[in-house]
Each structure stands twice: as C-alpha cells, then as structure tokens.
Amino acid sequence: MTRKYDVLVVGGGNAALCAAISARRSGASVLVLEAAPKFYRGGNTRHTRNMRCAHDTATEILTGPYTEEEFWEDLLRVTGGQTDEELARFMIRESKEILHWIVEQGVRWQPSLGGTLSLGRTNSFFLGGGRAMLNALYRTAEDLGVDVLYDAEVVDLDIQDGRFQSTTVAYGGQRHKVRAAALVAAAGGFEANIEWLKQYWGDVAENFLIRGTPYNRGSVLKMLLDKGVQQIGDPTQCHAVAIDARAPKFDGGIITRLDCVVFGIVVNKNAERFYDEGEDIWPKRYAIWGRLVAAQPDQIAYIIFDGPSLEMFMPSLYPPVKADSIRELAGKLGLDPQALETTVETFNQAVRPGTFDHTILDDCRTEGLNPPKTHWARRIETAPFYAYPVRPGITFTYLGTRVNKEARMLMADGTPAANMFAAGEIMAGNVLGKGYAAGIGMTIGSVFGRIAGREAANNARN
Fold first, then answer.
1. What is the pTM assigned to this prediction?
2. Of 49, 211, 226, 337, which has the highest C-beta tally within 10 A?
3. If you average pLDDT over residues 394-422, what whole number do you get?
4. Peptide bond preceding 371 in cis form (omega within 30 of 0)
5. Per the database record, which ranges form the FAD-dependent oxidoreductase 2 FAD-binding domain (predicted)?
C-alpha cells in the first residue's frame, strides 16, 4: 500500500482488466482494486457471453461482414439518436481492432449460438462465457505483473483541480492511502443501489431485479461527480430486460433472461397487452422490455404462449407455468380468467396468416388490433398453454462520467482532467443515451478500457 503506482485501476471487470493490461503493456506499473471478493470478481462481465464488433469479412466464427456504417445505424436505431456521434463512431471504428486484440490477451471465441438470437454475423461469443473470458484476462494481467487486490473498497478520492492525488481504500479491516500517477475508473454503474434508483424511479424500484453483481453500488461514480467530474446521461436510463420474476434480487445473470416474447403475447396484471411483441428482431428487441414492464402496474407482466412454441427458444432457469386451458393458466398466474381469455381470443381473431420465420421480419401480423403485433403473430390455441412471469431486470445504468476519445474524463467546466480516465459502464452513457444492442456493453468496456490504460500509462510516463 505504500508503493506509488503509475496507474491505479478501480474496478475488476472487462473494462478494468483491458485497461490494466493495456497500461502494463505500455510499460506502467499497475494496481487493480476490486471491491468484491475474488470469487465474485469481475462485476457484470461474469454474466456476459458475447461482444459486438465491426468487421469487414466473415471469419471462422462470424458468418458475414458487419460494417462500421451498419453498426452505427443499429446504434442509432436503439438509442433514438441519443448518443455522442463522434465518440460512438470512434468506438465502432476501434472495435475492429478489439476483435483481434482481445484474442491476443488470451480470450477465445466460439461459433454463435443459434435459435432466436440472430447474432451469428454481428457478435462474437466467448468460449466458456463471460467468466472464462474474465479468467483469461486476469491470467494475462497477472503474468504481465499487474498487482490485484480483492475486497479492496475505494471509500474516498483525493482530487485537486482536476488532478487525482490518491485514494483511500478499506482493505483488511483498515484504511489505507494509495497513490498513483494516473487513475482509471472502471467500477461500474449504480444499478445495485436500490436507494439511489428510487431517487429517480420512486418506490417502483423496489420491484426491480438486478441481473448482475450486488457490488456495483455507484460509490466511485458518486465520488467523481461530487469532486467536479462532468456528468452525462439520464439517471433513469439503463440496460434493462424482462427476466423471470422468480429470479433472485441480485446476481441472477443471463440464465434468468427470457427470449420468448416473439412467440406469444405479453400481458400485465390486468391481463391486457400493452406493446407490440413483434416490433424488431431479438438483438434490438430484447432490451426494451425491461422498461416496458417497469411501466406496468406492480412492475409485473406475463409472457403467454402455447405448446408448439415451447422448444423454439432458450428457456429460463425456471420452468414455465403450464396449464391445459387459458382459464386454468390465468388461475395459476393470479389473473382474471375471463379477462385473459378475452385478450387471447381477441388476439387470435386479429392474426393474419403468413410464413412464420423468427429469424427475419416475417409477414405474420395482426390486423385491427391495438397494440398490433407486426411480425411473428400466430394464434395461441394449441394446449398445453404456458407462461413466464417477468419483472424488470437491470444490467447497468447509463448515468456516468463524460469522456473524450482518449477516455479522459472531462471536468464540469469542460476541461480535460489532468490524469483521470474512465472505461466501461461508468462512462457508457456517452454512447448509450437510451436503449441497447446485444453485446455493446462489452464493446464499450474493451475499446475504452484499452484506450484508458494506454493513455493513463502515457500520462504517468510524461
């Protein structure tokens, strides 16, 4: 604790490790402070499985090209234009190198999963998932000589006139002052801090489930903002998906997510549909449903489908609720049986036949129904009938620190910080004003982590 490092990295996930490795490869001495115990290291990276990178040609694991312009158009669509275009286009361009750089750090790819994901051309999947990817990065960092401390919580930051001086760390039952020439903040958002979420969402936040780590409480983010770093992002915006309502409050991960909205209808506690289940293909569709469910009474909804759809998607960890009739299903879900029967029958009558294909925007739709189902509409009529209860599952929040292309934080007056950099969820709001596209969180973390580490090392050296 008495040694002064060139670069101090706060956080222990993908962004932090990319920064640590990049800084070490640039010749800097590096210390990583991870607030979690070793077993739970890595924040939300433990629960991920793929990354979205631009590439010009097919590869051994990608089925075709995914150009910078197409990536940009996808990002523009999901954010509704709420993104820093210059920074986002820069990230997309840099992602082409990350696809190869990350492999050089020991990470391995595998072919895309099939089914409803529709990601075989755009996203690269980690062999063994996020934990295997994370373990590879830690091995590389440690082999390079990066020092790592677990159960090391940053409790204060000494920042004077935009310059990081030192941090106070709670470690081993004591408080220690750690000095470094440059700081990289990669400690995530505040999604696990229910009280902070309630400041913006109200009491409904009590019904939110946190898909990832319980350690992302936003303490480092709050310190930085309080010390004069410029804020970016809407505090109510986040990466939120509909997950199984039976999932644990924290750390349920990817196995509680549900990919079956396309195969049926979604109703609220009043047994009423409230949104188009066929709006878009999975990578762009799935991340809107968390916020949609959050707006419903008691923040609960139910995905209803029938027998022929059961094996067409990746199931949740929990089995679906099963019944021989819609009325019986309603009873098991605690819904009004007559209301659910009416909703299903009204939907069935509105369905217009077409050629069903869940991998494309097909011609199966409803007519005269509000809200419509614009694609993949099929009658729900073949027993047994099934349902999954779902709640909003937050992955990470978008309130963060503003950065430039060097991943350098900007102070409230717009001037670049002297020696402070950020990567990952803590600055994702620069790119993601709202919405989400599958795998882009890992892209943000890897691209800006690599840059932050390199620039922090250069800053320390100079």
1. 0.92
2. 211
3. 97
4. yes
5. 6-433
pLDDT class of 227 with cuts at 50, 70, 90: very high
d(CA 413, CA 431): 20
- φ, ψ (nearest 5 deg) of residue 301: -150, 170
**Residue range 436-460, pLDDT digits in tens:** 998 999 999 999 999 999 999 999 9
Q: Which helix (H) or strand (E) holds 105?
A: none
pLDDT above 90: residue 167:
yes
> How far is Cα 364 from Cα 406, in angstroms, rounded to an integer?
47
Residue 187 is encoded by which pair of tokens? Answer: 């400690």
- 363 forms bridges with which residues in the sheet? none
Cβ–Cβ < 8 Å for 260, 347: no
Q: What pLDDT shows up at residue 282?
A: 58
Q: What is the mean pLDDT of residues 342-370?
A: 95
> Does residue 367 carry a pLDDT above 70?
yes
Report the chain's terminal Cα–Cα distance, integer Å.
23
pLDDT band at 284 (very low <50, low <70, confident <90, very high): low
Instruction: Concatenate the DSSP letters of all residues of 133-182 into one string.
Output: HHHHHHHHHHHHT-EEESS-EEEEEEEETTEEEEEEEEETTEEEEEEEEE
Backbone angles phi, psi at 90, to 5 degrees: -60, -45
Show the domains of the chain with their CATH numbers.
5-235+398-461 (3.50.50.60), 240-393 (3.90.700.10)
User: What's the rounded Cα separation, in Å, for the pair 382 and 13?
Assistant: 45
Own/partner contacts of 86-92, CB < 8 Å, gap of 24 or more, are: 86/405, 87/403, 87/404, 87/405, 87/430, 87/431, 88/430, 88/431, 90/405, 91/431, 91/443, 91/444, 91/447, 91/448, 92/54, 92/68
> Side chain identity at 430, as an amino acid letter?
N
- Say if residues 433 and 83 touch (Cβ distance below 8 Å): yes
154 bridge partner residues: 169
Rounded CA gap, 147 and 145, in Å?
Answer: 6
- The Cα–Cα gap between 420 and 452 comes to 9
Contacts made by residues 60-67, CB under 8 angstroms, sequence distance 24+ = 60/109, 61/109, 61/110, 61/111, 61/112, 61/124, 61/125, 62/112, 62/120, 62/121, 62/122, 62/124, 63/112, 63/120, 63/121, 64/121, 65/121, 66/121, 66/122
SS3 content of the chain, % helix, strand, coil (to 5): 35, 25, 40
What's the pLDDT band for 386 if we cut at 50, 70, 90?
A: very high
Rg, Å, the chain Cα set: 23
